[in-house]
Amino acid sequence: MDIIHILSIDNLGYLEIMLISFISSIIIFVPIPYVPVLIAGAFNTQLDPHIISILTTISVTTGRTLIFMISYYGYKILKEKTKKRLLPLQRLLSRYGWLGAFIAALTPFPPDDIIIILLGISKYNPFKFILASFAGKLIANEIIVWSTVILGKPFVERFIIGSSDPFYILIISIAVIIITILLIYLLLKINWSTIIGKWFPWTTNNDYD
Predict the structure, then answer these.
(1) What's the CA angle centered on 7, arms 160 and 107, to 5 degrees?
(2) Which of 97, 123, 151, 208 has its CA 20 to 30 A from that of 67?
(3) Under 8 Å CB-to-CB from 173, ≥6 apart: which residues?
């Protein structure tokens, strides 16, 4: 389904927008953004832009939280040696993880999966993750919806039509998968105490609470 067809859907309702947004958010490593559907909803004069933004935020945040929780509980299968290496990172993210979650959510296009997985593996507080993700995604969605309403269909089509090309999606997907796998591998192998400890020595303190 290309962007032109998506933008021509006049009977797209709240339920359809929520469902497509949720499915898009749980397909990790593949750059299939929900943004075109969000834009299509904004063009439908029968729908309220604010409601579109809020419902989409709920759907996407739910999908992102599922990915986070899988990573969160996946921490249990890691070796003790790996967990020890991750400890300084966990301590750092316990203070500043909300910023990463917020910025990742504020970005309307993938890939932000690596940040979600990183926060999950690092055992970041789930409640804080949800709040930061919801806030960032709500701001991003409001900007997209109202920019669409104000700028109009011709302007939006002109600047995002290229993102629907299947070849483009395939190439980007492969690149994202490879990069993400490498990053996760490095994440688990890096000695974080030597990297983070230099700038945040309190993360390597054995007496840290």
Answers:
(1) 45
(2) 208
(3) 29, 30, 31
b/e sequence 46-62, b meaning 16+ C-beta within 10 Å: ebebeebbbbbbbbbbb
Place of tokens 């609470």: 209
Gap between the Cα atoms of 125 and 98, Å rounded: 9
Q: Which amino acid is at 188?
A: L
24 part of a folded domain: yes
* pLDDT single digits (tens) 157-199: 555 544 555 666 667 667 767 877 787 788 788 888 887 877 8
| Residue 44 located in a structural domain | yes
For 3-13, how does the pLDDT look when each residue is reduced to its tens digit (9 = 90+)?
445 444 556 78
Question: Would you tell me how many other CB atoms lie within 10 Å of the CB of residue 80?
Answer: 7
Per-residue tokens: 19 = 């469902």
Range of the domain at 33: 3-204
Structural domain includes residue 209: no
Q: How many domains does the chain fold into?
A: 1
Q: Which residues are CB-neighbours of 11 under 8 A, at least 6 positions away?
A: 44
Neighbour count for residue 103 (Cβ, 10 Å): 13
Count the alpha carbons within 13 Å of 205 in the hemisphere toward its beta carbon. 10
CA–CA separation, 49 and 143 (whole Å): 10
Where do the DSSP E strands lie in the chain? none
Q: Is residue 43 part of a domain?
A: yes
